[in-house]
Amino acid sequence: MKGYNCRFLVDEVKRRINDQEYSDDDIRGFLNSAQLEVLGEERYPFLEKIHRFDSIGEGEVILPLDYQSTFQVLLDGRVLEYIPYERYLKQSTAGQYTIYGDKRLFFRSFSENPARLEHFYLAKPYIMEMDDEPIIPYEFMEVLILGALYRVEQSRDNFDFAEMHHRHQDELILSMKKRYCMRHQDVRNRARVRANGMGRIY
Asked: Which of 3, 109, 137, 176 has a Cα at 20 to 30 A from 128?
């Protein structure tokens, strides 16, 4: 939806707490914390992306800036096998790949002249700027607002109000999981990396 961004959510949180002086940066941090809490370890479809490399050099590509974790890598249409970085350095064969940090993907090709690499991955969900659009769809923006309200009220020592917001948020998270996650119940990511958080985490 047009206008659905961090600024919109911050303004809505301020309206509900009736405090226009509350720190924008703190609320943005609360929104990030809420988004991380809501997403948890689930593999929501809206986190899934594909990065296609038509020019892949000699066994190494730079990962996209929003990279969080890998689901699958295909080279010329064939699935590559993930192995840990230490093992990759010591002994790796054609059809294997590894991830170093969150910067580079290394692979062993099936042929001398690989043509196309497809990287299926999950995106990193951080809200960095006020005009950034949250990765959680507009129809479930309330889970972010409630998560931020929960943290605002905690910071004010209004623990009863905070708990009320948290309970409502949990109900909406369950609804979101039922809508988006049923097709992924038996699927696990092949490779994961530690995500670097931002803002104040509670």
From this structure: 176
Nearest to 94 by CA among 85, 113, 81: 81
Rounded to whole angstroms, how far apart are CA atoms 70 and 189?
6
Contacts of residue 149, defined as CB under 8 A and 6 or more positions apart, other chains included, come to 13, 16, 17, 161, 162, 165
Strand partners, 104: 62, 100
CA–CA gap between residue 161 and residue 76 (Å, rounded):
55
* Predicted confidence (pLDDT) at residue 2 exceeds the cutoff of 50: yes
Q: What is the pLDDT of residue 187?
A: 44
pTM of the model: 0.70
- 32 in Cβ contact with 157 (< 8 Å): no
Distance of CA 75 to the CA centre of its chain: 24
> Rounded distance, CA 195 to CA 164, Å?
29
Each residue's pLDDT tens digit, 91-146: 899 999 999 987 899 999 888 888 889 999 888 778 889 999 999 999 999 999 99
